Amino acid sequence: MSSINNKLTVREFTIDDVNFIVDYFYNATDEFLLGMGAIKEKLPKRTLFYDIIYSEVEKKYRNKNLYYIIWLLNNEPVGHSHINKINFGKEAYMHLHLWKNPNRQKGLGSAFVKETLPYYFKNFQLENLFCEPYAENPSPNKTLLKVGFDFVKGYETIPGTINFHQKVNQYILSREKFITLFS
Length: 183
Fold this sequence. Notes:
Blueprint: E1 8-12, H1 18-26, H2 30-35, H3 46-54, E2 67-73, E3 76-87, E4 91-98, H4 108-123, E5 128-131, H5 138-147, E6 150-157, E7 166-174, H6 175-182
Parallel strand pairs: 4-5
Antiparallel strand pairs: 1-2, 2-3, 3-4, 5-7, 6-7
């Protein structure tokens, strides 16, 4: 982190956070989205995207399709992590996003991920947490290794509805390793 005076916290998302998440994607430049393996034209209509996320806020953990954790720096929202492909009690797939460039590449991502992981493992009783970042996006790949995820494999796929065909790196953090590292 750039300063020891920074107060880093995380929390579950609320209805008030939905616009932050939607704005992050819709206000991003084409170049930025390409850097994370996404294409603006593949984003759902803004209102649909909002409704999809909004609909998840009040669901019980067992029924969620998406689950977001908001990252705060000095009490200001600066990013988020979320999981999808949730198989309650078994596995989910994590995504991580720092919203603005000045907050990137300062070690914040690793610190935020460490604070976020307990929410995923506890609330969804996960055995395994996966993450599959775009192979050509170095930041999340470095962050995952730094936090303790294990590299599984690299492969080509279209990882999500907003992504193009690309090489991704698959990482895993097992419940057992999570407990060992973070207890």
